[in-house]
């Protein structure tokens, strides 16, 4: 994994199995993007890319939601309860979020 300026580890929970979304801290996207993105590219450990929609209800929220497109990433990487997803901004590429799954 490329070392990012800001790294987040998110546990995968039962809720994620049915909702197909992932909350990420706003700071992660603020570090990696110079604008407020509507879509980002999520890259998995095999370098496959997924276009994922970013939802943001208001500026005061401390999290943003990875929505449409996240399901494809989730299914392709066979995410299960207890897995941990390590996310970081990849400074080599604009609008990319690198994600590595660690199995429980």
TrEMBL record:
Write out the annotated subcellular location: Nucleus
Which keywords does this chain's UniProt record carry? Answer: DNA-binding, Nucleus, Transcription, Transcription regulation
| InterPro entries, per database record | B3_DNA-bd, DNA-bd_pseudobarrel_sf
Which intervals of the chain form a coiled coil?
none
User: PROSITE patterns, alphabetically?
Assistant: B3
TF-B3 domain location is 7-104
Q: What is this protein called?
A: TF-B3 domain-containing protein
Species whose genome carries this gene: Stylosanthes scabra
Higher taxonomy = Eukaryota, Viridiplantae, Streptophyta, Embryophyta, Tracheophyta
């Amino acid at each position: 994994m490329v070392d990012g300026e800001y790294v987040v580890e998110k546990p995968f929970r039962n809720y994620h199995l049915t909702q197909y979304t992932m909350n990420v801290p706003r700071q992660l996207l603020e570090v990696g993007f110079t604008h407020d993105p509507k879509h980002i590219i999520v890259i998995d450990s095999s370098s496959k890319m997924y276009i994922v929609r970013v939802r943001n209800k208001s500026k005061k929220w401390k999290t943003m939601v990875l929505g449409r497109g996240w399901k494809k990433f989730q299914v392709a990487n066979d995410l299960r309860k207890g897995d941990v997803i390590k996310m970081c901004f990849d400074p080599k590429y604009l609008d990319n979020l690198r994600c590595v799954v660690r199995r429980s």
